[in-house]
Amino acid sequence: MDVTKYQGVIPAFYACYDDNGEISPERVEAFTRWLIEKGVKGVYVGGSSGECIYHGVEERKTVLEHVVKAAEGKLTIIAHVACNNTRDSMALAAHAESLGVDAIAAIPPIYFKLPEHAIAKYWNDISSAAPNTDFIIYNIPQLAGVALTLPLLREMLKNPRMIGVKNSSMPTMDIQVFKHEGTLGGRDFVVFNGPDEQFISGLLIGADGGIGGTYSAMPELYLKLVELLNNGEIETARKLQNDVNNIIYKLCSAKGNMYAVIKATLKKREGLELGGVRAPLANLVEADGVIVDEAVEMINKAIEKYL
């Protein structure tokens, strides 16, 4: 496995809608090209930031097809393929492999609390539908209601295609624990930092790269954080992480959903039109315009300060 393709800044791809709230292939492709221009390592398509649980199977296929088309091999592409049933998840996995993505990923099944052997079977069934593609566990217990445990990880490590964990649990020690377990015996194993607020903490404790929902709001700043860590400039990295976190808190302070705010900041800063968010996520209200303006100003000031 080429571990380097999973290192660095991998933004979670946002859902791109037209003015009627339908998936816009044109905006998907424009967003993909914009991310390439920004210099990120890859994209994570169809996850939380992509509003996947509010999309049908065909919509998710359409998004991934147009990301792959626009990327032209210039990005590492990880496709999140989990649905809340095995059949649809396997269909998305097979489709992703047919497009030549680098990896597929999946959260555990949600709503019903399943035993770990059933979760492992769900993941292994999904992986079996893409037998030539790397498989990544997406651990996000605060939303999925299920946490990845060491016994479950050990069971999944029996699958030779299972090469890593996207870890969005809040304790950074989970990154270290999963990395240690995954690399026993000299095996290549990748762990991604999930919570954006602990980006540098995750990398310092052993994450290979990061996958995050706010990376595309300010890719320049996350790329700078990697550069600072690589250069040993830890104190400056701490200060920039603090400024990034304050921006995240601002993005989360509107009445509208955070992704609606981010899309509005991208439109204002970059002229990038991605539409709103899909119900039941809340779109912006008029009063949120002030928060968008403040977020744009904070991002611009941070870029001026650190870049």
Give a short summary of the structure:
By secondary structure, this protein is an alpha/beta fold. The protein is 48% helix and 12% strand. Strand 4 (103-106), helix 4 and strand 5 form a beta-alpha-beta unit.
What is the CATH class name of the largest domain?
Answer: Alpha Beta
Instruction: Please write the string of helix (H) and strand (E) elements.
Output: EHEHEHEHEHHEHEHEHHHH
Oligomer: single chain
Given the C-alpha coordinates, what overall shape results? globular
CATH architecture of the largest domain: Alpha-Beta Barrel
Number of strands: 8
Rg: 18 Å
Average pLDDT level = 97
- So, the CATH homologous superfamily of the largest domain? Aldolase class I
List its traits.
single chain, alpha/beta, TIM Barrel, 307 residues
In terms of topology, how is this protein built?
Elements: E1 8-11, H1 25-38, E2 42-45, H2 57-71, E3 76-80, H3 86-99, E4 103-106, H4 116-128, E5 134-139, H5 141-144, H6 150-156, E6 162-167, H7 173-182, E7 190-193, H8 199-205, E8 209-212, H9 219-230, H10 234-251, H11 258-270, H12 288-306
Parallel strand pairs: 1-8, 2-3, 3-4, 4-5, 5-6, 6-7, 7-8
Walk me through the structure:
The chain has 307 residues and is of the alpha/beta class. It folds into 2 domains: 211 residues, TIM Barrel (Alpha-Beta Barrel); 89 residues, no CATH class. It is built from 12 helices and 8 strands. Strand 7, helix 8 and strand 8 form a beta-alpha-beta unit. The two termini are 33 Å apart. The mean pLDDT is 97.
